[in-house]
């Protein structure tokens, strides 16, 4: 029998979140970002479920080929581009699209013999200073690509560094630079990630690129929406919202809620009684302030549960809220069941998801939801729901 830990993925919720993205950007095409195994949710399963997706975004060639081998026929964009010239053959052979973000990538592309033209997304660095051409180099790269005869369609793009923050000054600055450089150009354009899609409609352009919101996590680091207006969600509903920001808003005053797609859960495998003052876990980092009932749960950092989760990190045991105590170990965690006499070995434990927002766990572990969701390890069992 395998370990009882499993990640339950609700594909219907992912579809609903994709539909929400379409509603928020009704005049844009939507690229569903499924890199990093769809943020830990299973890239082939998610892409197969998103039959209406206009395109998929992945980080690298291997991720794209996995989708093609699974029968995915929609456009697939390599957001990291080709890592060397040799990959361009597979790009062409599998009808992939690629980002070009550096002079080396541009040189490789222009210098390669291609059997057919390729759709290219040309990236400008508007302020994140990670990938992309400077404004001046961007203009020259665009001219070179258009003159090469190798480009089927050219999309102009950039990426925001701070769209998740309530203070939109950086986003405004990046948007202004991009708009200045592409003004009057006929190519399609793309800027918005999940956070910008939700909070900055002026950035929607021709293509939006939702990632984390598809999987039901709030992309806003300091939510500009009222508590509960994005998550958690049990059923579709609308919530009044106000978003304080400087970019003009055209989002409707009501918005359907984002729905969490992953529930990570396991079971209690042991329960022990300890006396006041006794410790739990490696390093004796937690001591019982009184006689305590301690449960052991089959999940640890080797499964993707955050090792640095603090004492007090919440879990749901048989639907009851309980707290992590002691250090997270490789295979197990300990939780305080004092005051929960009805809880028994074998009861279900929700680590995050249904009834327990992943954002809450991430905050207690001093990390981000992206890392928790994308960090699920191979030995975790996956189960898919489609309802």
Give a count of the beta strands, DSSP E runs of length 2 or more: 20
How does the helix and strand content classify structurally?
alpha/beta
Spatial order of the strands forming the largest sheet: 8-7-6-5-4-3-2-9
What is the CATH architecture annotation of the largest domain? Alpha-Beta Barrel
- The H-level CATH homologous superfamily of the largest domain, spelled out, is Alanine racemase
Number of helices: 11
How much is the radius of gyration in Å? 23 Å
The top-level CATH class of the largest domain is Alpha Beta
Q: What do the pLDDT scores average to?
A: 91
Helix content: 25-40%
Assign an overall shape. elongated
Low-confidence regions: 223-256
Reported by name, the CATH topology of the largest domain is: TIM Barrel
Tally of structural domains:
2
What gap, in angstroms, lies between the N and C termini? 27 Å
Strand content: 15-25%
Q: What about the largest sheet? A: 8 strands, parallel
């Amino acid at each position: 029998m395998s370990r009882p830990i499993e990640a339950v993925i609700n594909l219907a919720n992912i579809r609903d979140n994709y539909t929400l993205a379409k509603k928020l950007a009704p005049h844009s095409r939507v690229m569903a970002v499924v890199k990093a195994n769809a943020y830990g949710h299973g890239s082939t399963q998610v892409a197969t479920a998103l039959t209406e997706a206009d395109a998929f975004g992945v980080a690298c060639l291997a991720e794209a080929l996995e989708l093609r081998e699974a029968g995915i026929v929609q456009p697939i964009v390599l957001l990291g581009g080709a890592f060397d010239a040799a990959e361009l053959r597979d790009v062409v052979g599998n009808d992939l699209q690629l980002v070009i973000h550096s002079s080396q990538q541009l040189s490789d592309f222009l210098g390669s013999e291609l059997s057919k033209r390729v759709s290219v997304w040309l990236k400008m660095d508007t302020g994140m200073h990670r990938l992309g051409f400077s404004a001046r180099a961007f203009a020259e790269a665009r001219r070179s690509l258009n003159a090469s005869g190798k480009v089927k369609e050219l999309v102009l793009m950039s990426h925001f560094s701070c769209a998740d923050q309530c203070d939109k000054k950086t986003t405004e600055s990046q948007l202004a630079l991009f708009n200045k450089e592409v003004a009057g150009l006929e190519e399609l354009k793309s800027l918005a990630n999940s956070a910008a899609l939700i909070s900055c409609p002026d950035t929607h352009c021709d293509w939006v690129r939702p990632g984390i919101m598809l999987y039901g996590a709030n992309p806003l680091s300091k939510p500009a929406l009222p508590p509960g207006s994005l998550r958690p969600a049990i059923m579709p509903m609308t919530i009044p919202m106000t978003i304080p920001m400087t970019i003009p808003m055209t989002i409707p005053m009501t918005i359907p809620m984002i729905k969490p797609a992953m529930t990570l859960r396991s079971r209690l495998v042991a329960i022990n009684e300890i006396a006041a003052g006794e410790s739990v876990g490696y390093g004796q980092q937690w001591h019982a302030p009184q006689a305590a009932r301690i449960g052991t749960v089959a999940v640890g950092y080797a499964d993707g549960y955050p090792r640095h989760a603090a004492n007090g990190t919440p879990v749901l045991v048989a639907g009851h809220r309980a707290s992590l105590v002691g250090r997270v170990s490789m295979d197990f965690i300990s939780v305080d069941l004092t005051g929960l006499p009805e809880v028994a070995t074998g009861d279900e434990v929700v680590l995050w998801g249904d009834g327990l927002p992943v954002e809450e766990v991430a905050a207690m572990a001093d990390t981000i939801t992206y890392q928790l969701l994308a960090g699920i390890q191979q030995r975790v069992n996956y189960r898919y729901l489609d309802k």
